[in-house]
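Re: [ENG-882] Designed sequences occasionally contain unexpected residues at chain ends

Forwarding the minimal case from QA. Structure tokens:
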């Protein structure tokens, strides 16, 4: 048999109808639901008098709108309150499990799926949310869908899809200390652009990826969509299996061993051919900071804000001009001289336990600069609890960080956590678009370690000069 990629294997296992000139009909193994993109889908079902086909393969949580303070149970925002109560009512009526605000399992949809063991290798996973690509870290085929597709999946547990092309992104060699998964994906997007992945599903390979924890792999896959890809995934290995062992919805006992046997077979075969291959050398990747208004507009901590002449294409020069203005930055400004007023450690990109450990390692015994307001928002209530048990919460609080409940928070301005116009935020999230963290807010995307260091110094600093171990790699 011809060697195959993991992408082709999962696709083939899930096609239930294939006709010339039509998209394939795929079976969906897991449908994750949140409050923002589901109300109309449920309304559609009701109007057509349909049921949810597989409530047992559907799981809901509240994340985007929820306040992450004690205001949690009395949202003042009318739309938010409506969307949350609609989700509660819909889940009740259609018998869907919901991690509501009282649940210890509540959190950002892309954090709780993996942590509960719902996310597993070989599954097709969809959610009305673009960062569903996160789940690909487990060797699942996971992608975001629109609200009409949410309705289709609720009603039929299937989805019409054109088969995307495949791409290998190979990260060659090991990473240096102080360089994290966030720097890797930001550098990939910088090098290849915000649309290099269009029409493709990416498989990330190479020594740097294999050396990463599941949390770091999730950070990489999470931002596949920021490079334009439909999805991103990583062939499963022992790191994947040991992460999943003992999770609430993981198979148990002998079933787990059988599952591992099946999961092992999913990995891309030696000699399998991708439609496109790109390569990047890990040693070239340094701590990275975005200076502009899309995730490709980044430079290393050693650089300056680029000059218009640095761009060869006219469209990039124009985009840069506009970004300088929005960001209030002059070309040539050294990155380590940019002062920030806010720090946000959170979001489905970087709010898992290892992210908080990484940030806490830098914060320990230090104080947040008096000019900075800093937030840590754990991705889930489980992460919050674990961080409290490990003493990380105390480290953050003693340093002057606000310690919050789980939610999307400052990642996007759909809840009370916003950055005021004209102010700057060092953020561990994934999007730096105009207005993303609030009207006129200026976002700089960074790793958790870089965000933590910025909180202490009030500006960007090179974490490699702080002589600490980041992500388990020695200084
Ligand atoms: C609100 C939701 C539809 C949106 C998405 O799909 O990504 C959000 O999660 C985001 O990150 O912008
Ligand atoms: S944390 Fe941010 S990127 Fe992730 S789902 Fe929430 S809003 Fe979207």
């Amino acid at each position: 048999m011809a060697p195959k990629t993991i992408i082709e294997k999962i696709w083939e296992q899930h096609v239930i109808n294939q006709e010339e000139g039509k998209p394939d009909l795929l079976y969906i193994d897991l449908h994750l639901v949140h409050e923002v993109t589901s109300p109309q889908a449920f309304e559609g079902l009701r109007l057509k008098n349909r049921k949810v086909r597989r409530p047992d393969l559907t799981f809901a949580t509240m994340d985007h709108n929820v306040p992450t303070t004690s205001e949690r149970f009395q949202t003042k925002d009318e739309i938010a309150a409506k969307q949350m109560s609609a989700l509660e009512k819909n889940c009740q009526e259609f018998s869907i499990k919901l991690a509501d605000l009282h649940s210890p399992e509540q959190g950002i949809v892309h954090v709780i799926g993996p942590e509960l063991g719902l996310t597993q290798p070989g599954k097709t996973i969809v959610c009305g949310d673009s960062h569903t690509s996160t789940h690909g870290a487990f060797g699942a085929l996971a992608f975001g869908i629109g609200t009409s597709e949410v309705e289709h999946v609720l009603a039929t547990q299937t989805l019409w899809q054109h088969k995307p092309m495949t791409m290998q992104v190979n990260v060659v060699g090991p990473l240096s200390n102080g360089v994290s998964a966030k720097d890797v994906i930001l550098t990939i997007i910088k090098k290849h652009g915000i649309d290099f992945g269009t029409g493709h599903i990416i498989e990330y390979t190479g020594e740097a990826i294999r050396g990463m924890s599941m949390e770091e792999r999730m950070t990489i896959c999470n931002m596949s969509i920021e490079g334009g890809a439909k999805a991103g995934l990583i062939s499963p290995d022992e790191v994947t299996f040991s992460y999943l062992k003992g999770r609430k919805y993981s198979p148990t006992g002998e079933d787990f061993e059988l599952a591992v046997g099946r999961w092992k077979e999913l990995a891309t075969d030696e000699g399998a051919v991708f439609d496109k291959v790109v390569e990047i050398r890990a040693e070239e990747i340094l701590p990275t900071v975005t200076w502009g208004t899309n995730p490709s507009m980044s430079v290393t901590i050693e650089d300056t804000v680029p000059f218009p002449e640095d761009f060869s294409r006219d469209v990039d020069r124009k985009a840069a001009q506009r970004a300088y203005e929005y960001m209030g930055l002059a070309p040539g400004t050294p990155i380590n001289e940019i002062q920030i007023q806010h720090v946000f450690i959170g979001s489905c990109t970087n709010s898992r336990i290892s992210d908080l450990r990484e940030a806490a390692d830098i914060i320990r015994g230090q104080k947040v600069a008096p000019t900075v307001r800093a937030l840590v928002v754990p991705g889930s209530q489980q992460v919050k609890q674990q961080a409290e048990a490990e003493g990380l919460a105390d480290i953050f609080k003693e340093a002057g960080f606000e310690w919050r409940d789980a939610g999307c928070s400052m990642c996007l301005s759909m809840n009370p956590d916003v950055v005021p116009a004209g102010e700057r935020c060092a953020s561990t999230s994934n999007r730096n678009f105009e207005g993303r963290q609030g009207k006129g807010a200026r976002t700089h995307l960074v790793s958790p370690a870089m965000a933590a260091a910025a909180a202490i110094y009030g500006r960007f600093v090179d974490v490699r000069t702080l002589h600490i171990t980041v992500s388990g790699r020695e200084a």
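QA comment: On inspection the terminal residues look reasonable. The CA atoms of residues 75 and 297 lie 35 Å apart. Proposing we downgrade this to a documentation issue.
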